[in-house]
Each structure stands twice: as structure tokens, then as C-alpha cells.
Automatic annotation (TrEMBL):
Residues covered by the S-Me-THD N-terminal domain: 9-162
SUPFAM superfamilies in the record: CV3147-like (SSF160991)
InterPro entries: S-Me-THD-like_C (IPR048350), S-Me-THD_C_sf (IPR024071), S-Me-THD_N (IPR010318), S-Me-THD_N_sf (IPR027479)
Protein name: DUF917 family protein
Organism this protein belongs to: Dethiosulfatibacter aminovorans DSM 17477
Length: 366
């Protein structure tokens, strides 16, 4: 059985930023506090989806709310414990392990607090494989598995439980509830047997996030970074990473009053005669090279700071920053017709038929 210890924290953090595709929430506080928590030989068992026991129950855990508040929050892990206890109580079930809904951004890290403090193992997998903004954008919902009962605790330990089986309605009620007090909540949900999770989870995403993070820690230059990324990803649940563009950020435009933004990039080096635009709404939604579609969700769009050789999220982007745009195919469970109706371009308000990276860059992938 694998374990997560202190040496895993930074690679998981860097991998989670890369897989967050611009969103998901990024906080250095969580990294520092986790390293403190794990400093005294603390470790967490990491169990594969294959190791799940069919008749035992496992719970999803994490946080939901405004990513902009995360950098000011000092996590302890105790925030989610009231919701864990309440979920076990109302389902009258013993929790055998924990899982994260999205192994990207802050929700790749926060479950480590809960697992360490509860003594429960963490499952090596998730239900999104990147960062999506809404609860229905998971493989659980895609497979008609409800997240309820959904127990949400606030920073004072008060727990509110939602029983809506319709995940769209659940999302709406939780967002309305969060807006009424702190915009951040800590949840436990999706109390499911191992048999159901084996059918619906995307496996190995925690391990894969750490492998990607190690690429950023160990690379010597940009060429080495790109080569390592391709090697790590080409035989993974995703697909080989591909450089889509390299350039210098010109500006970030607010496209509408509906939280849409457009990132404009001017090409450098072999792309010096080209331009690139990325549509953003919480995450990177679609990319265009010289006005032709280059990539779109659910395929992953990640940005790397060419000077620091580190992945960056939307909050870190600024004019004159040199970035490379990296695409990566989404796992197959996110590409079925049912899945695309939930996590495809139209689900983000971008009314266009999905074209995969494999289709757009056929010669590269085949």
C-alpha cells in the first residue's frame, strides 16, 4: 500500500495547480500547514480504487466556496470533522476511507488534513480529474449517483445537511447557503460503497498529480520540463501533454459582465508571427490560435511561467509574463456523450461542439 508523507506535499501542490487549469483555488498556506502537520512522521495510507472493499463505505470530503478567500485562511483540518461525524451518524455507517471530488487546486490538498486527523486512508482517484466549478460536473453525477446527503460545516463547526438527490438543485442550494454567511464551507458527501466507486471514479489521479509536480521540481530548463511532461502523461489516464503556444501576455480583457475574461498572448520564438487567446471563466475554457480553435474543455488547458518553470493559475497572470500553453486530453469517462452534456463547452456557456485535442492534432497523437 502506498503512503503520502511530507515529501509528497509539494509535488502534489504543484501537480494540483497544473491540473487546476487556471482554477480550483491555490494557497501556499495549505502547503506550509500540511508540512507542519506531517513533520512528525505522520503519513496517510493511499489506497488504489482496486483495493476498495465492495461492501464498505467511503466518503467524499473537501471544501467549497470562493477561491479568493483561501490565501487568508489558516487550515487545520478540524474544519471538516463535524461534517464527517454528521455524515456517519445520519447514514448509520462506518467510514472506511476518504476521497476527493477533484484532485486539483485546493481540493487535492485539503482532504490530506482530514485523512491525517481522522486516521482514515485516502483513495487514489477522484471524480473530475481537473477543476470544475459546479458539483454536478463529476463522474458521480454522470453515472446518476447522487452526492446527498451532503453535510456542510462552517468555520464555527455548525453543520447543515442537504438531502437533494438532484445534483443541480444541490449545487444551487449550497451556493445560496454559502453566500449567506462566509462563502467557504467544509463538506462530507457521497457516502458510497466501494463497488459503486470502482465503477464511477477516475483512478490514480492523486499519484498522477504528484508525478506531474515532480516534473516541475526536477526539470533543468523549459525543454527538459516539456519533455518530462510528455513522458509522464503519455501513458496516463489523460494523454500526452502538447505545447499549443508560447508567448508573452498582452492583456486580460473583461469580455462581458458575466465573469467571462479573454487572455491575449503575443507569440515568441517559433510562434512570433502568431497570436493566441484563451477564454476564461473560473478556469481556462477554450484556446484559439490566430482565431482558429486550438483546445476546449473538458480537455485540460494549463499555463506555465516560462521564466520560473512553474504552473500558474488565473490569479497570477499579468501583462508581459512569458507563458506556454499546454494542452492535455481529458480522461475517457469525461468524453462520452452524456459526460459532454455536463462538462463539455456548452456547460460553461460556450456554445460550440466539442473537438478533442486528438482530433485537432491528429498527427501528434496518432
Amino acid at each position: 500500500m502506498k503512503k503520502i508523507d511530507k515529501s509528497c506535499i509539494k509535488p502534489l501542490f504543484l501537480g494540483s495547480v497544473y491540473l487546476g487549469t487556471g482554477g480550483g483555488g491555490k494557497t501556499n498556506n495549505a502547503v506550509y500547514l500540511l508540512e507542519e502537520l506531517f513533520s512528525s512522521n505522520v503519513s496517510i495510507p493511499l489506497i488504489s480504487c482496486r483495493e476498495l472493499e465492495n461492501d464498505k463505505y467511503y466518503a467524499g470530503t473537501g471544501l467549497v466556496g470562493s477561491p479568493t478567500l483561501l490565501d487568508d485562511f489558516l487550515f487545520s483540518g478540524h474544519e471538516s470533522m463535524p461534517s464527517i461525524r454528521e455524515l456517519a451518524k445520519i447514514t448509520n455507517s462506518e467510514i472506511a476511507g476518504l476521497y476527493t471530488l477533484e484532485c486539483a487546486g485546493i481540493n487535492a490538498l485539503y482532504p490530506l488534513f482530514t485523512a491525517a486527523l481522522s486516521g482514515l486512508p485516502l483513495i487514489d482517484g477522484d471524480c473530475i480529474s481537473t477543476a470544475f466549478p459546479e458539483l454536478q460536473m463529476t463522474t458521480l453525477h454522470i453515472n446518476n449517483i447522487p452526492l446527498s446527503p451532503f453535510c456542510l460545516s462552517d468555520i464555527r463547526g455548525n453543520v447543515t445537511t442537504f438531502y437533494e438527490e438532484d445534483t443541480f438543485m444541490l449545487e444551487l442550494k449550497i451556493r445560496n447557503h454559502l453566500a449567506s454567511y462566509s462563502n467557504v464551507g467544509f463538506f462530507s458527501c457521497g457516502m458510497l460503497k466501494g463497488e459503486a466507486l470502482k465503477r464511477s471514479m477516475i483512478p490514480n489521479t492523486v499519484t498522477h498529480a504528484m508525478e506531474i509536480g515532480k516534473v516541475f521540481m526536477e526539470c533543468t530548463d523549459y525543454s527538459d520540463l516539456l519533455s518530462r511532461l510528455v513522458t509522464v502523461t503519455k501513458n496516463s489516464i489523460y494523454g500526452a501533454a502538447i505545447e499549443l503556444f508560447k508567448g508573452k501576455i498582452l492583456e486580460i480583457d473583461d469580455a462581458t459582465n458575466d465573469n467571462w475574461q479573454i487572455l491575449k498572448i503575443r507569440g515568441i520564438e517559433s510562434y512570433s508571427s502568431d497570436n493566441y487567446r484563451i477564454i476564461m471563466k473560473n478556469e481556462f475554457i477554450a484556446g484559439f490560435k490566430n482565431d482558429s480553435i486550438s483546445v476546449m474543455v473538458p480537455d485540460l488547458i494549463s499555463l506555465i511561467d516560462v521564466d520560473t518553470l512553474m504552473p500558474v493559475d488565473i490569479s497570477e497572470l499579468k501583462p508581459q509574463m512569458k507563458v506556454s500553453v499546454i494542452g492535455m486530453p481529458a480522461p475517457l469517462p469525461l468524453k462520452t456523450p452524456t459526460a459532454l452534456s455536463i462538462v463539455g463547452p456548452s456547460s460553461f456557456g460556450y456554445k460550440r461542439t466539442y473537438k478533442s485535442l486528438e482530433e485537432l492534432y491528429f498527427d501528434y497523437y496518432y
